[in-house]
C-alpha cells in the first residue's frame, strides 16, 4: 500500500507463520539447552504442532544461519548453537525472514514533504519494533512460558 508515495505494505514487524514456527522450535530447543539434550524433528513437531516437512525446512535455515546445530547418530537431533541468553528474537527473525526484512524500504524515496514525514514516522516505528526484538532472548521466552504455565497451574488448583 502506498500513501503519498511511501510504501507502507510492510508492517514494522510482521510475524509470519514461518517466523512463528521457527521461534516455537527454538523455544523447545532452548528449554533443553542446559540438559544438553537434543530434540528430533518429530519431537518438536509434536510439541508445537508444526508440520514435519515445514519444520525440516525451517531447521535447515536455522542451521545455515548458525542458530542451531544438528547432531548425528541414534541420539541425534538438534540443539542450539549457543546459549539461549545470547540468541535474540531479532536474530531468529533475521535468520528466517532475511536481512531485507529489517532494512528500511528505500526503493522509492519520498517525493513530497508529506510522504517524507510519513516515512520518518514509519521508519521510527520499525526501529522501535526491532529494538524490542533485540532486547528479548530465547531465555526470556522460556522464562515467560514457565511463568505462564505456573500461573495456569495455580489457577486450576
In short:
With 157 residues, this protein is mainly alpha-helical. The chain has helices spanning 17-31, 41-48, 52-64, 89-97, 113-135, 138-156, and strands at residues 2-3, 6-7, 68-71, 77-80. It has one domain (13-156): Orthogonal Bundle (Arc Repressor Mutant, subunit A).
Helix content: 55-70%
Summarize the main sheet: 2 strands, antiparallel
CATH class reads Mainly Alpha
The CATH superfamily bears the name Winged helix-like DNA-binding domain superfamily/Winged helix DNA-binding domain
**Low-pLDDT residue spans:** 1-9
> What is the CATH-assigned architecture?
Orthogonal Bundle
Care to describe what's here?
- The chain has 157 residues and is mainly α.
- 55% of the residues lie in helices and 8% in strands.
- The chain has a single domain, classed as Winged helix-like DNA-binding domain superfamily/Winged helix DNA-binding domain (Arc Repressor Mutant, subunit A).
- The protein is built from six helices and four strands, in the order ββαααββααα.
- Strand 3 (68-71) and strand 4 form a beta hairpin.
- Helix 1 (17-31) crosses helix 3.
- The radius of gyration is 19 Å and the shape is globular.
Amino acid at each position: 500500500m502506498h500513501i503519498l508515495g511511501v510504501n507502507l505494505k510492510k508492517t514494522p514487524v510482521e510475524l509470519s507463520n514461518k517466523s512463528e514456527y521457527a521461534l516455537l522450535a527454538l523455544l523447545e530447543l532452548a528449554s533443553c539447552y542446559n540438559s544438553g539434550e537434543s530434540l528430533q524433528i518429530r519431537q518438536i513437531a509434536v510439541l508445537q504442532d508444526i508440520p514435519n516437512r515445514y519444520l525440516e525446512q525451517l531447521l535447515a535455515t536455522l542451521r545455515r544461519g548458525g542458530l542451531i546445530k544438528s547432531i548425528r547418530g541414534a541420539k541425534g537431533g538438534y540443539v542450539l548453537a549457543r546459549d539461549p541468553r545470547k540468541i535474540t528474537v531479532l536474530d531468529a527473525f533475521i535468520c528466517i525472514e532475511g536481512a531485507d526484512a529489517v532494512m528500511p524500504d528505500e526503493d522509492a524515496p519520498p517525493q513530497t514533504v508529506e510522504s517524507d514525514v510519513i516515512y520518518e514516522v514509519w521508519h521510527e516505528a520499525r526501529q522501535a519494533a526491532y529494538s524490542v526484538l533485540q532486547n528479548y532472548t530465547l531465555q526470556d521466552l522460556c522464562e515467560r512460558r514457565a511463568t505462564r504455565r505456573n500461573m495456569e497451574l495455580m489457577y486450576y488448583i
